[in-house]
Write a structure and sequence with these properties.
With 192 residues, the chain is α/β, with parallel strands linked by helices. 32% of the residues lie in helices and 26% in strands.
Length: 192
Amino acid sequence: MTLDIDWTRYNTLVERLALNVYDSGFRFNQIICIARGGLRVGDVLSRIFDQPLAILSTHSYTAEGGTIRGELVIAEHMTMTKPRLGDRVLLVDDMVDSGHTLAAVHDELPRRFPHICELRTAVLWWKACSVFKPDYYVEYLPDSPWISQPFEVYDDLDPATLAARIAQAPKPAAIRAADDASPVLQGDNEKA
């Protein structure tokens, strides 16, 4: 079974997750998203709550188009914009599937950053088969469907295929007008 998610539904789920966290009263001063699935969720929550976003990369899906879990690797470093990680952390991902990634990161963060005094988790989807229950979620899935998210169209897209697709697609009028007015696209690079 596959659960097909379009952009409208995806964005609504992220907004509902934001409200779930807000309604709980949890006051955090740092968001950490697990890349890649949690990047979009973390970015939107960071904007809504006006809190700094840190990005932690993990990797575990390695075979058969990313459908078979391999050994979990948690990056040694995080990308963050503040010199010090906040002490009240909201850890976000898109889903808790098996739960192994979220559980491992949840356990690892306080070891790496002992100043963390509170750590809660937030996801869009919580599958019943998970070994980890998130603090916040939007949809509980009693079965374990494959969730086809709107950005997954890029998983099998290479630059050459993208270029061919864009070249064949009709341009909207606004883009045609901008292209026609662009000195760079007209070959006059000295005016650009």
